[in-house]
Write a structure and sequence with these properties.
alpha+beta, Phosphorylase Kinase, domain 1, Aminoglycoside 3'-phosphotransferase, Chain: A, domain 2, 2 domains, 5-stranded antiparallel β-sheet, two-stranded antiparallel ribbon, 9 helices, 39% helix, globular
Length: 294
């Protein structure tokens, strides 16, 4: 845990290295992001957030390291720390290109499927589903208490938690239907054939081409769960290329009934957006709840 960005740069790259320039990088809603050019000619990626808890960027670093262990292409974690005035920061390798490789979507589909097929025992303390530490999805705390059943985990640590956060948005009937959905969740979800390490927040903004144009995963909210939850998230905000889905399902075939379950997985993300960004997401969340138990 470094005490300043300058200290981190000197420790990682050498005492003579300094920051030559800092350029703002757009694209995120939660953190400030910058491209740093160092005096030795190297570039690093800096994320900062004022008022974040001590574990905020530590959790992201743990998620990136877990994905790397599972075979993902991710930025290298260089260090985390705390500047003055409570500004937390995360330093990563700078890996960015505007030109995806020709087989970009095929590579992504195959890589994600292989991540989902990786052994998961090292990432959960007890039980099967969860993660060895809590983390965040965006700025929202994400509980990863281990559970032996997927439906139980998704009910208690995902939907139930977000519904509690969103309680002030809901009318009396909304609350009744939410409780009914949680009670009947086992009628809709299925237990997976194998547990998977999930990215956890897999939309198009969290995948980008690295320096070689190959797909790289960023901004994870990892946990061990059902692989369908990651795939559902890819379809929530516009979807990925059909080539991606074809490549993924070459390795992990689509389970029967996935389309009927997809909206329940994505209800979690819509509720999180409701809690982060406000009532514009309320109608979409209501529609999904009513679709299943209305």
């Amino acid at each position: 845990m470094y005490k300043s960005i300058k200290e981190a740069v000197k420790d990682i790259f050498g005492s003579e290295v300094r920051i030559e320039s800092q350029q703002s990088v757009s694209g995120g809603d939660i953190n400030e992001a910058y491209r740093l050019l160092l005096s030795n000619g190297e570039e690093v990626f800096l994320k900062t957030k004022k008022g974040a808890g001590e574990n905020f960027f530590r959790a992201e670093a743990k998620g990136l390291l877990a994905l790397k262990e599972a075979g993902a292409n991710v930025p290298e974690v260089l260090g985390v720390g705390n500047e003055s005035l409570g500004e937390r920061f995360l330093l990563l390798s700078y890996e960015r290109s505007n030109r995806p490789a020709r087989d970009y979507w095929t590579l992504l589909g195959h890589n994600l499927a292989n991540i989902h097929r990786a052994q998961t025992a090292s990432w959960t303390k007890d039980g099967v589903y969860g993660f060895y530490d809590d983390n965040f999805i965006g700025a929202t705390k994400q509980k990863n208490n281990p559970k032996s059943g997927w439906t139980e985990f998704f009910r208690d640590n995902r939907l139930g938690a977000q519904m509690k956060f969103a309680d002030h948005y809901f009318a009396k009937e909304d609350k009744r239907l939410c409780l009914k959905l949680l009670d009947k969740l086992g009628d809709f979800l299925v237990e997976p054939q194998f547990p998977s390490l999930l990215h956890g927040d897999l939309w198009s903004g969290n995948v980008m081409p690295d320096r070689l144009g190959k797909p790289m995963l960023i901004d994870p909210a990892v946990y061990v769960g059902h692989h369908e939850a990651d795939i559902a998230m890819t379809e929530l905000f516009g979807g990925f290329s059909p080539v991606f889905y074809a490549a993924y399902h070459e390795i992990i075939p689509k389970d029967p009934g996935y389309v009927e379950r997809r909206d329940i997985y994505n209800l979690y993300h819509l509720l999180n957006h409701l809690n982060l960004f406000g009532s514009s997401y309320l109608a979409a969340a209501r529609r999904i709840v009513k679709k299943y138990v209305g």
